[in-house]
Design goal:
The structure is a homodimer of 159-residue chains. Helix content of chain A is 47%, strand content 17%. The first copy, chain A, has helices at 2-20, 27-52, 62-78, 121-133; strands at residues 84-87, 92-97, 138-146, 149-156. Chain A is globular. Chain A binds chain B through residues 1-3, 5-7, 9-11, 13-14, 17-18, 36, 40, 43-44, 47-48, 51-52, 76-77, and chain B through 1-3, 5-7, 9-11, 13-14, 17-18, 36, 40, 43-44, 47-48, 51-52, 76-77.
């Protein structure tokens, strides 16, 4: 329990730090903040996945990697598995978490919906960083329609 | 293990974010960065101690509080106890940690000694925040003479 709090609180502080100087923000500023948080997540994701996969056998395909992200990675970072993983088998994956750890501090429902992106940017970066270190370039976005549930969309970039 | 990494990596990113725009810093700027990090730690410390002490019996004196910080609080946040606690019985406490979690990523010795303060400001804030929520105003400073060992000095402010 302590760990969760340590990470969650620090994450909250970090978001508020990044957004602090942008009280009256235009679209440009908001994009910068999101990308700052995403970048931090990216680098942390790269570091984490190295530790998490240290003793794992190698993955047989992209789906296998995504399953690892949904299960082991998610449990280690967010304390639970992804509830649902869907794919079109063409490089797009949708990860649905019905009770996303970093949104549980908000009241449920739609009241704070517009604040959600702030609190998801870092996590999108985490996933993108983890995948990147496993050799998969991707674009990761998140979408909330009702707190605290959240959908992450991962689109693998074929080279 | 995963938790440690999650917190440590995020902490690293946060320090580098706070210091990013200050490549050629003067003393004033450095003080601002330290105080930003310390402030974040303070608020997180306040939050954490509420959770950690939820089921604890009340403390009988200041020394009792400090023992809790050195043991339970430290284990929850930094994965180990403080190695040594000394006090002059007049409100000054020195907490010595011979292998401080947030310094273990540095090479041991004196090479990066001047960078240490960056990585200790947040933790000083954590301790000050925790104590503050237990009703003790304090000044917390940290000092490193040889990585990764670290001494925190806590001076309780009598009102």
């Amino acid at each position: 329990m302590a760990d969760d709090a340590l990470f969650e609180f620090l994450h909250m502080e970090m978001v508020s730090l990044v957004y602090k100087d942008h009280a009256s923000m235009n679209k440009q500023d908001r994009a910068t903040c999101v990308s700052t948080l995403e970048g931090m997540g990216f680098r942390v994701g790269q570091g984490l996945i190295e530790r998490f996969t240290k003793d794992s056998p190698s993955f047989k395909d992209d789906l296998d990697v995504m399953k690892f992200i949904c299960k082991d990675f998610w449990i280690n970072v967010f304390r639970k598995q992804v509830d649902n993983l869907r794919t079109n088998h063409q490089g797009t994956y949708v990860l649905q978490d019905n009770k996303f750890a970093l949104l549980t501090q908000f009241s449920s429902g739609k009241q704070y919906l517009e604040d959600a992106p702030k609190y998801l940017a870092y996590s999108c970066g985490l996933v993108r960083g983890a995948l990147s270190n496993l050799g998969m370039d991707s674009v990761v976005t998140a979408e909330v329609s009702l707190m605290p549930s959240c959908k992450f969309q991962v689109v693998i970039q074929k080279i």
